[in-house]
Amino acid sequence: MAALMACSGKTAAVQTDSTPLEASRVADADSLYSFVEAQVALGPRTPGSTAHAACVEYLASQLQSYGADTVILQLAPVTTWQGERHTAVNILGRYNPSAKDRILLLAHYDTRPWADEDPRGDLRDTPIDGANDGASGVAVLLEIARNLQQLPLDSIGIDLLMVDLEDSGESGGGSEESWCLGTQKWVEAMPYGTDDRPMYGVLLDMVGGRDAVFNREYLSQSYAKGVVDKVWALAAAAGLANRFPNSMGGSVIDDHLYINRAGIPCIDIIESYNPQTGSFNPTWHTTADNLASIDRKTLAAVTQVMLTLIYREDGKI
Questions:
Q1: 73-96: buried (b, 16+ CB within 10 Å) or exposed (e) per residue?
Q2: What is the DSSP letter of 176?
Q3: With 60 as the cut, is the pLDDT of residue 17 above it?
Q4: In terms of C-beta density within 10 A (0-12 exposed, 13-18 middle, 19 or more buried), how is residue 8 classed?
Q5: DSSP code of 110?
Q6: pLDDT computed for residue 172 by the predictor
Q7: H-helix or E-strand containing 140?
Q8: 88 membership: H or E segment, kind and range
Q9: What span, in angstroms and rounded, lies between the C-alpha atoms of 227 and 233?
Q10: Distance (Å, rounded) from C-alpha 57 to C-alpha 243?
Q11: Alpha carbons 231 and 245: distance in angstroms, whole number
Q12: What distance lies between CA 245 and its chain's CA centroid?
């Protein structure tokens, strides 16, 4: 993603008739970390690499193992700003596909091919591990999938979308179209008709940083303020107002931009106003974006909010 500006115990219990669902019981921090760890262990998931192909197989198989009704791979030719040609592979897992009321949750799984923000100049051509920038958002989606298998949906549908080639964009504030290539292709062929288009979407990007705080992202507020209000209110009700403050962060060119332009209101949960940098997490696009940068508590907090959102929309809480 590219920044445009900076504005100011384990495992949960399944619901029973006598016990209301509480999202804090189902967001398993260790499970979340294991999903990040599994992706990072493959190596940098850069376009065209062996690790990238292995990640596609891993993610598709995980969705299948967690009971997705349908798993769709969308393959599309793309050309990066450097003229490199790749096949983007977007992975969609659908739960309760017959439901007309749907929510789209998405994250990118590819990683930055070069650490262009690394403080060491000799490392700036090094592909990054992408533990936070890539693997963390996908980990939240996989943990949601695990919970959807344990406690299936009744009235709504969930689409879990893992998009490709988000992070091969031009360095230094280049063309916005050089970013989010997989999502740009996905919106050209979305699997929706006029009656089952998602009510809204939530993008999860860099949601595993240490002590991360998620300010309201500027474009999310502009395109889908009602969705931002809904999610931030749920976070506050869950005691997470310190993680989701009602103050503005940065404006980010990210996958949600193209989802919004396609007619689906979509917000971005992203650390965009870090106190040290004024924008993204200090590990952003550096070789320090590795497992050591991941905070289980951050992952669990974001997942808690997402599970509360899902099961409240489904009428379970």
A1: ebebebebeeeeebebbbbbbbbb
A2: G
A3: no
A4: exposed
A5: -
A6: 77
A7: helix 137-150
A8: strand 85-95
A9: 10
A10: 33
A11: 11
A12: 19
pTM to 2 decimal places: 0.93
Residue 26's pLDDT is 73
Tell me how far apart the alpha carbons of residues 68 and 158 are, in angstroms, rounded to a whole number: 10
Characterise 200 by phi-psi region: left (phi > 0), alpha (psi -120 to 50), beta (else): beta
pLDDT digits 0-9 by tens, 47-85 = 999 999 999 999 999 999 999 999 999 999 999 999 999
CA distance 145 to 147: 5
Whose CA is closest to 133, among 32, 283, 3, 302? 283
Structure tokens belonging to residue 11? 């495992």
Among candidates 267, 225, 261, which has minimal Cα distance to 106? 267
Amino acid at 151: L
CA-CA-CA-CA torsion sign (297, 299, 305, 308): negative
- List, in sequence order, every beta strand (DSSP E) within 178-303: 200-205, 250-253, 266-270
Angle of helix 137-150 versus helix 50-65 axis, rounded to 10: 20
Q: State the amino acid at position 161 in one-letter form.
A: L
Cα 150 off chain centre by = 21
Q: How far is C-alpha 81 from the geometric centre of its chain's CA atoms?
A: 23
Residue 87 to residue 89: CA distance in whole angstroms = 6
Instruction: Indicate the residue type of 11.
Output: T
DSSP β-ladder status, 102-108 and 157-163: parallel
* Residue at 65: amino acid letter: S
| Three-state secondary-structure class, residue 47 | coil
Residues constituting the chain: 317
Alpha-carbon Rg for the chain in angstroms: 18
Q: Write out the H or E segment, with its range, that includes residue 57.
A: helix 50-65
DSSP string covering 94-156 = EESTT-SSEEEEEEE----SS-TT-SSGGGTTSPP--IIIIIIHHHHHHHHHHHHHHS--SS-
* Segments in 238-281 forming alpha helices (H): 255-261
Given a contact cutoff of 8 angstroms between Cβ atoms, the answer to whether 88 and 165 are in contact is yes
The SS3 call for residue 161 is strand
At 111-133, the pLDDT tens digits run 999 999 999 999 999 999 999 99
Show the tokens assigned to 97.
């596909």
